[in-house]
## 1
Amino acid sequence: MQRIVTKVAGEVGFYFAIAFFVVVTTFPFYWMLITSFKSNPDLYDVTNIPFWFNEAPTLEHFRYLFEQTLFVRWLLNSLVIGLCVVTITLIAALPAGYSLARMTGRNGEALGIGIFLTYLVPPTLLFLPLSRIVANLGLQNSMWSLVLVYPTFTIPFCTWLLMGFFKALPPEIEEAAIVDGCSLFGAFVRMVIPLSLPAILTTVIFTFTLTLQEFVYALTFISSSAQKPITLGVATDLVRGDIFFWGEIMAGALIASVPVAIAYNLLLDRFITGITGGAVK
């Protein structure tokens, strides 16, 4: 009897914990969803219940975003910046991670840790020297300045991530390809990269997410509304002095975050494989 009670209590505790984490993780999306469809009288009346509709839902906030702001342009800017940074990061991080993984001794691991430590340097310490570089290149107030700057923190992290995954791949794979007539580069392209697709996918997701959520560099280098990414445009152009357009802000945040959340869930298995691939050698 005691064993049954213990088992039931364990199952109840397990499902309670699952329900708790589900509520915690989904509440921000629920709050963005309900706020973006609330009318302004419903939204700003402090006597109303904030967790439900007290008046009929409305699309006025979405109309304002698409008709009265450059929201579509901000989305396109973020997409272009993300794709460019992902491409640059893969071109640099793939060979760098592979080279570090195949270095003999402790030199590769020490160098990899050193590269990763550069990722930990906060942007608040780097935006001043980087702003000088951006100014010398004539990229002030241009989204291409972000394409130049963002790889400074995406490449170190992704190099370290890929290095751990490449270490899990046995060197015999490349050696067999070389015996069959491939060059080292050919073995890397034909054998290593196809086996590393989970890690590459993880790198793409991380890189795009990092560029999408970055704010300090965007705020420093861009002031024109037409050049802003989505994070900066929503946070600055939808605030007038001390007035926050909460309906439009939540609508913009919802549109920007839901596709990323869906991508994470659809690719969750490969994402976990890429993260844990370098954990076991």
## 2
Amino acid sequence: MDKGVSNKIRILSFYSIFMVVVCHAYNLTSLGIEKERNVVYYIEYLFALEMSNIFIPMFFFISGYLFFNNHDLSVFTFKRKIKNRFKTLVIPYILWCGLWFLVVYVIQFIPQLSHFFDEPLHTMPFWKKIWLAFVDPINYTFWFIRELIFYVWLTPLIYLGIKYLKFYFLIILAALTFLQQPSLLYLNNIYLFQYLGLFSFSFGAYASISKFNIVSSFKTSTYLFLLVLWSIFILFNFYVRETFEENYWLAILCRRVTMFIGFFTVWCWYDFINKKYELQNKHLYGYRFFIYAAHGVALTYFTKIYVKYIGENDVILLLLFFVSPLLATWACVVSAKLLQRITPKVYALLTGSR
């Protein structure tokens, strides 16, 4: 892979994961601030939800692109790549989901913390414990890895769709993302084989197979136009969200279009900035998977605890909204470095040798 493309994927992946951390720092759930829709709410919503949601299709796009990178499309290579993803996806999925389940299981026996949980895990039937550990995991950020594992299994079919239907295959998948039902299956309150992820992964696969140049080279005015267009759609999306139900066709349409425009804008703006400042890979970016895997549950309950004691102080809540992702990222990087130094083999298992 070209070094410039490799750097782009690595750097965008890191900052995308940081924005996921920002998303999970949202601290206004069920508060009066959220219901009243004041300025603090709109600021948090802008960063935590409106801007962060573009990185879901970006992650899947990158995953699809990387799977088919240097792929000769032979049966042997499919087997090798799928086997490799078992190490990089399945094993970390099982370890992290099991680890966070055990952590929460133990925490629920601590009287000062037990009231933050609606239903104790130790009182649940065995099947539900397994379900919450590995299917609909307490480590909720791993829904993405669960979906990605499914898509990897489907890669031979995705390739056949691209081979015989060509760009029409992507058009069909893109159309599915605008349906009210967001996935092929809905099982026990979880969505499986989500259309948005499947389309984005397949789009990345198509770009890789077709040898697309994924580095943009537009005029400055084009980059500015994209930014202005995205901003307009974000504002319009705010209006639509306040006016219509979430499942109304216009709300779905506006949400999806805004997301795709945002994805394309950020993807291209990386190139615009890189031309001026030559962005460099940093050692810090190598910890991006550990940050993704470790931050979710810890940040969620940290947020619940401080919200309980702070209450509806909107200024402090807004300050903590911006500070918490930085603290969580720093804590994850420190923990990753310590683990890597003390038990490198365990670290390699947890991260899929990334």
## 3
Amino acid sequence: MADQAQPVMAADSGSSSGPAQTNEKTRREFPPKGQPLIHGFNRIGLWSLYMKEVRRFLKVHTQTIWAPAVTTLLFLVIFTVAMGRGDRMVLGVPFATFVAPGLIMMGMMQNAFANSSFSLLAGKIQGTIIDLLMPPLSNAELMIGIVAAAITRAFMVGGALALAMALWPGVQLQAAHPWAILWFALMGATFLSLLGLVASLWAEKFDHNAAVTNFVVAPLSLLSGTFYVISNLSPLFQTISRANPFFYIISGFRFGFLGQSDIGNTNQAVIGAALGLGVLNLMFGWGAYLLLKSGWKLKS
């Protein structure tokens, strides 16, 4: 009897060691609590955030894409009627052709700011900010997703405006320097997207965000040479205009279409402004990243 019981006891002891081995294997497969499972760049998470932001503004595209395009087109109609009579020429082209690139860039910048300044602010006000902070996304990935979606909206608005203005009587849009069109459009949209991100961190209600739009973005856009050349201004105001980064964005963008601008009429004259805007965006982006990483007015 004893000899028969020994195999049974051995089998029992073997079966009891099974769950212990399984638990040990599970502990080896999963890292300790608090240690991240995703290493490197979370491409899937970043793409998900980007698509969420894009779908958010596309869901109301009549308000976020077409309405800004129509509003900006009205500027072209009004200023062409008011200032473009008598075949007025500016920089050697009709006034409507001169002002069209500036209006396209102005619409792109304003909508880039509007898009990036909404997500975090709406989350803070509605109490849904946890949906952006809890997913396994680093601060850099969170910033890139929001800024990239804002740039996408800016380019969509710019495309709608360019199509409408190309069909408008008296406007001739020709790509004299395609590199300048793409570069200054990207730099302008990026700069305003970063500004909108910083504004959404600072703002505590929609009134604060509207204040930045009305007292910072709109004045800098309208006083940046969109409707005039700064050579018509006094030396003091020319100096003030040259201190405005919007001036270089709009003038460089205009150079891409006309081959002429307040900055200069050659690639060499404009490249300095192009590089300067690139450095400015890198510095501004680094500052926005540090603010986001600190959790200023976001996690406290």
## 4
Amino acid sequence: MGKKKLSSLEDLGGFVFSTNDNFEYENEENTATLPVNKQYLEAHFSNKGRGGKTVTVITGFEGSDADLKALGKMLKQKCGVGGSIKDGEIIIQGNYRDKIMEILKKDGYNIKRVGG
């Protein structure tokens, strides 16, 4: 494997180097979580790219990563299955789309079924 030669600071991929002791990195990401009744979530069913295993994918959550993880944890516990939270999506192992939609509607979320 050859090493890529760096020709400019942009090649470092956005690192910030500072000698200022009071420097604070500005986070451009929107971390304000929308209220439950303003959330518009989508429930997908998928088995592509997962070795044939079926999963339920919840997308559309707008808010902080901590709130997304808390919602994902609650859904996994109520369904009694495993899952993960990646790239702003909640992935629940198995086809629990109807059960998850029921749980989220009771909590006040706007959720719609997408696909099959």
